[in-house]
Every structure is written in C-alpha cells, then in structure tokens.
C-alpha cells in the first residue's frame, strides 16, 4: 500500500504554499517517485469503472437501502490530498471513463456545470435507448432517454455532444423490449433501423459509434 504523507501550510500566503509544496515533494513517498510511475498509480486508483450520470435530488440519502448498489461516495477523493496530485491527475477520471448518460436532461445539466477543460478531457460516452416492440407486425417508436427519439434527440442534444470537443467514441446501448409472447422474436427489421439511426448519429456528430443490442 502506498501511503501519502503531505503537509499543509498554516497560512494561505504564496510563500507558505511554495514551502508546503516543496516539503511534500521531498517527504511524500508517492511524490518522490518518477512521474511515469505516479501516473500509473493515479490510473490504477482513479480509473477502475465507468461513470453514470444520474439525477439525484440534493436531499437524497447517499446510502439509502433502495439505491441498491448505487453509492455516491466520491471515488476521486485522492485528488483532494494536495494541489500537486490534483494538477497531475484531475483529468484521468474524465479521460479514461465512459460516461453513461441515461436521460437527456441529465446530460444537459452535467455539461452545463462542467468547465471547458473538463469537457475537453472526456473521450467516451454511452447513450441508452429502449425500443418497444408492441406487436408481431408493428414496431413502436424508439424511446431514447425515456422520451421519444425524434423529440429528445434534437439540436440541443447534438449541441451537448458537440460541446465535448475531444470526444472520440459514442456507445449506443439499445434494449429491445417485446411486449408480447412469441417463440421467435423478429429482429432483422429492428437491426436495420438501429443501424440507420447509428449511421445518422455518426454523420451528424462525426464520431465513431459502437452499438450494443439487448433483448428482453
């Protein structure tokens, strides 16, 4: 286990800050390591899972039993240890995670609160949509982020994706829900439509789109 030993200046003056930073550099086992090794440790500590962008009310209990496995304990607390660690590693959780965005309003709120530097650090997002298959012969409309595709995936949604200036990959996660019992579930018509939608998305945003389809 790597122990962090850091010192905090009693005053907030610039000289105190410089002295504290230099002292940390000399005394901390982590900060004495070469930058390449520190980077590997940062990645191991900060980049272990994806981030889900969800809507949680401010008075919601962080560890309520109804949350299941969702826990809102900060996963990046090591960035608060000292300024040097923050300056070296703040972008890693943004760059190496895929941001799973379930609802369109959540994405909009998230991007509005992020700084330009934070948005530029994001490389990958996952969008979830659900397709309800109502009958054996009729496909219902595609539902995206809990609202209809053509109503939700509008210019505002594209503007949000465009604001992620260094975005490289979009993962389109499609869940097909069959609303009836059949021995063989028709899939080819749905697959063609999903491919078409993914193509439209890729042409409009100009990013690589990966598709994952799940049946229910």
From TrEMBL:
<dbReference type="InterPro" id="IPR038883">
    <property type="entry name" value="AN11006-like"/>
</dbReference>
<dbReference type="InterPro" id="IPR056632">
    <property type="entry name" value="DUF7730"/>
</dbReference>
<protein>
    <recommendedName>
        <fullName>DUF7730 domain-containing protein</fullName>
    </recommendedName>
</protein>
<feature type="domain" description="DUF7730">
    <location>
        <begin position="25"/>
        <end position="178"/>
    </location>
</feature>
<dbReference type="Pfam" id="PF24864">
    <property type="entry name" value="DUF7730"/>
</dbReference>
């Amino acid at each position: 286990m790597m122990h962090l030993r850091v010192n905090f200046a009693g005053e907030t003056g610039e000289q105190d800050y410089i002295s504290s930073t230099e002292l940390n550099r000399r005394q901390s086992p982590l900060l004495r390591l070469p930058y390449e090794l520190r980077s590997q440790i940062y990645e191991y500590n900060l980049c272990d899972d994806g981030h889900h962008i969800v809507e949680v009310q401010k008075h919601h209990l962080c560890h309520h039993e109804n949350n299941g496995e969702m826990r809102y304990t900060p996963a990046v607390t090591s960035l608060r240890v000292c300024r040097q660690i923050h300056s070296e590693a703040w972008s890693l959780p943004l760059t190496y995670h895929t941001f799973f965005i379930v609802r369109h309003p959540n994405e909009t709120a998230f991007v509005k609160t992020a700084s330009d530097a934070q948005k530029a650090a994001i490389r990958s997002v996952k969008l979830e949509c659900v397709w309800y298959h109502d009958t054996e012969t009729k496909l219902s409309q595609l539902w995206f982020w809990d609202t209809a595709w053509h109503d939700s995936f509008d210019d505002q949604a594209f503007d949000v994706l465009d604001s992620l200036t260094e975005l490289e990959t979009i993962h389109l996660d499609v869940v097909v829900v069959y609303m009836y019992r059949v021995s063989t579930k028709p899939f080819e018509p749905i697959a063609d439509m999903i491919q078409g939608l993914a193509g439209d998305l890729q042409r409009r945003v100009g990013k690589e789109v990966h598709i994952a389809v799940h049946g229910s």
